[in-house]
Amino acid sequence: MAGVTTLSLATSVYIAESSACIGTGLFAVDDLDSGQLICRVSQPLVTSLDAARLVDTCSNCYVWTEGGSTGSRLYVKEGTKVQACAGCKRFRYCSKACQKQAWKRGHKQECKIFSQLGDKKIPNIVLACIVLLIRMKSGVITEQVWLPIMELNAHIDDFKQNGTYDDIEKMALGAQQLSFSSHQLELHIVTGLYARILTNCLTLITPTFDPLGIVMDPLLGRFNHSCDPNAFMVMDGPEVSIRTLKPIKTEEEIYISYIDTTNPYARRQKELKSSWFFTCKCSKCEKGPIQSEDNWAIRAQDMSDEWKQQADSIIAREEYNPGPINYVGNSKDEERVAALQTVVFWMYDEEQKVSDPAEAIDMIKHGMIYCIKTGLWPLYRQPYAALRDDAIVNLLSLGSYEIAWAHCAKRYRYIHPRLYPQAFHPVRVVQTWQMAMLALYLASTQAMVAPQADMALIAYMLIMEVRDASKSSHGEENAFTKSVSAKFDEMTVEFRDKLGAGADAALSDEMPRQRRLLAEMGDRLGE
Ligand SMILES: C[S@@+](CC[C@H](N)C(=O)[O-])C[C@H]1O[C@@H](n2cnc3c(N)ncnc32)[C@H](O)[C@@H]1O
Questions:
Q1: pTM of this prediction?
Q2: Which domains does the chain have, with CATH numbers?
C-alpha cells in the first residue's frame, strides 16, 4: 500500500459491526497462523512527533537520531543527523530525499503556516489536527479520506460527562486558529476532529518501542481492544504492521491491546474506562480478577504483623484513597493489601517522572523493597516487573552494567515466559535483544560476570533466539529484523575466524552449558 491510506486499500481485513465492542471493528478475510502479517499501512494519514522528538527525529522516516542504550539501535545508521526545514524551522529531516517526500506529501501546503507560528510549543494532538485541517483545506485530503475519519467515534457525550469537553474545545479552537481554517470548518466540527484523534490515535514507536509521537489513520483507528489480544502492532519508520499473536480464523474479529495487559484487572478496567469509555468484557476480563496478573504470592491474611501495621498506618492517613483501581477485596486484610499496592503503584508512577537515573534508582529500589519484604508480590505481578524494567534502563544509564545484567537474567528466566508466553511476543523479543547487546558489551570488557560464563557466546545464543523470533514479531522486512540478522551473521564470521574449521561444532557443544549458566544467573539476585 503506497501513499495515503484509504480504507478500500486494505484487502486482508474488512470492517463490520462488532458484536463484542462499541461500534465497528476489523475482521480477518482469511485464516492466519500466529506470527503472520495481517495488514500493513506504509504511510498512515498523519503522524505527529512529541515536542521533545521534533528536534532529534526525522519528520519523514521517523529515524530517532538520539537516545536508546548503546548498541541496541543498530538499525539506525551511525552518524545520522537531522536538519531543520529552512522555511518553517519546526520539522527536521535526515536527508534531502526525506525532505522532498514530506514536501510532496503535504508540507508544501503547511510550511508557510508553520513558519508563522515561530517556536510556539504545540502538543502532538493539536499538531496532528492542524496538519489535517490544512490538508483538508488545500485539497490534499479528499472527501474519500475525510469521511472515514469523521465516521470514527468522537465520544463527545463521554467527554461532556467526564468534564473534559471544555478543554477539548479549547484545544480545537487553538488548532482552528493556527491552521486559519475558521472560514472552512465550524468549531464543533474541529472539536469533533480533535476528539477523534484523541481517542483513535496510536503511539508512534520505533521498532524497539521507544515512543516518538502519535499516528492517526482511519484504518488503524478501527481496531478494537482486548486484554487478551490476537494481534499487535509494530512499526518501522512511518510503516505500521499489524501481526497475529495467535491464530485467527476467517471472519474472526482482530483485537490489539490499547494498554499494558500485564496489569491487574481493576487497573486495566479503570484505564480503559477513563481513556476509551468502555467496560472491557474480553475473554480475560469476562472471568474477572482471577487471572495470573491478579495472583499474589501469599494470601492477604498470611502477611506479617509488621506489614499489617504498616498498611494500617497508610490507611489512617488523611490523604489515603485507594480507589477502585487498587481494589483487592473486602476483608480487612485485603484492604491492607490494597493500601500497600496503592503505595507501590504510586512509587512506580513517581519514579517514572524523574529524569535523573540515580534518583530514579533510589525510588525504584524503595518500590521493589516493598514488593519483596511484604512477601505479597510474585516476580511477575505489576508493578514489580515494571519496576525491574525501569531499574535495568536506569542502571544502564549509570553504567552499572553487571547489576543490570543480573536483573536481565532474572527477567529472562522468570518474567518473560510468564508475562509474554509467546517466544515471539514483541516485548519479549525487544527486551531479549537489549539483553543480548548488554551481554556483548560485558564480553568486550572481559568482566567476570559468573565463573565459566562465556558472555560472547551467551550474546550469540540470545541474538540467535531474537533472529528467529523477530521474523514473527517484526517480519522479515523490518529494519530491526534485518539488523539482528546482520549482527548474527557478523558474529558467526567472527567465531569461525577465531575457532577455525570446527567452530560450528565447538559452539553447539558449548551452548547447553552456557544456557545452564545463563539460567543460574537468573537466581543470583535473590528476589
Ligand atoms: C480506536 S476506536 C476502535 C473503533 C471503534 N469501535 C469504532 O467503531 O470507531 C476505540 C473505541 O472503540 C470502542 N472499543 C474498543 N474496544 C472495545 C472493547 N473491547 N469493548 C467495547 N468497546 C470497545 C470504544 O468505544 C473505544 O473508545
A1: 0.93
A2: 1-44+219-281 (2.170.270.10), 51-216 (no CATH), 404-527 (no CATH)
